[in-house]
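Sample A.
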Amino acid sequence: MSHDIQRELIPRNDTIRLIGNLNTMKERLHDAFQQWVLLDENDHVPAAPSYPELLQHAADAQELSRDVLQLATDFARSPHATTRVGRAVLTRLASAASLSSHAAPHFADTAQHALLRSRTSHSTEQHYLANHMVIDHADARAFLRRSSEALHEAVIELDQHLGLHRFLTPMTQQQNPAPPPPGRSGHHR
């Protein structure tokens, strides 16, 4: 196998480990997207959404974003980030980090609008604040979903890279055959 191809390969075990980390983070983001809902079962804005619960969404989204950013930072510092597939994965990680960082402020805005809505008696202002709550919460969830999708795309890149490993392994074995097992010496007792 040529030296250039070997330099471009991320070691198989490192690739598998990274896929596992990306899948775990992807699932955490996707679960948050699925579970953190504002609307009730009839798709209506609740009369009194829980301000502490909405703030918790913001805090949890901040933690998710920090974890995605740490994953991207760790990979960017690795020697694998300079390979062709590494650059593609890093691009997806950068996108996921950027997208996830936008979720927490939107969840915080949702909580703020919920609090303001609970303190006003004017119906027009309540309607206005309810609309902003719905939009901000939907945007926050969309950022989580899109961040999860970016990580999924990184996993696809790495899965294809594993395919390259499977293709090149037989070639490497043909070019560098294993040495024969040690034979018996000519001495008999």
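Sample B.
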Amino acid sequence: MKKRTPMMKRYSLIAVSVLLTVSSIATAEVYKWQDDLCDMKGSFDNKKYSAKQIKNSHLVLDRLTRLNLESFSSPMSVDALDKLSMKDLDVSTEEYKQVKRDTERLDVVPEAKGYKRNLLKTIDAEYEKDRLVILGYLNPSEALKQSPQMCKNYIEPFMQNEAAVQNRWKQFVEEQILETSEYGADELERYRKIATQRYQEEKVSNSAKYARINLITFGFGNCVNDQIYHADSEKVFNNYNQLNKTIFGKSLKMVCEEP
């Protein structure tokens, strides 16, 4: 066997080095995307990630601060209240199942798996709120059993009589007025005038139905919404920037319009 000389070994090492450099360059791939204000691009290692994974990861973070279920809207008018039925719960449930399945199938970069779990929690929370509001209108006794403790006071009057409902509505209007006191006396008086006029008009128009709308949509619904899981928007923004830094490093470039 022919013995390798030091020069042959040197050439061999150079060849390996060149091969590794070419291989490293070949893994770099450019990814471009846009958000509300900026055009962005960066190079990523396509042996670690795929463009589809990056796209899905951005989608997950974007959806953490947006509404994911859109089939149901809490009634805000008598017409909308009159159309409400248990079919709305069926439609909402089907949408929830489909959106959750689609989300579970999203292939994301490893660093975004925690964000995906948070998105699934967000979808669960949105559905729970919609479900409880529908029950509040159509099956208040069941809503009362399942609602957070601090929200039950909006539903309890419906287990009593119409006088109790009307009294709780009037109390709720006053509670809303007093919430504006932190903005000063002028704002308090301004809102008191608006809220009182609206209350009187609704009471004359259809006191029973407007009491339900105010207590369930605005009282109960908002109370439940305050208790369910919501991703912190500032934290999501920071996580989005950190994820991009991890994927693209110093290659990340962005061109933004003036807001």
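B remarks: The chain is about 65% helix and 5% strand. The longest helix spans residues 185-227.
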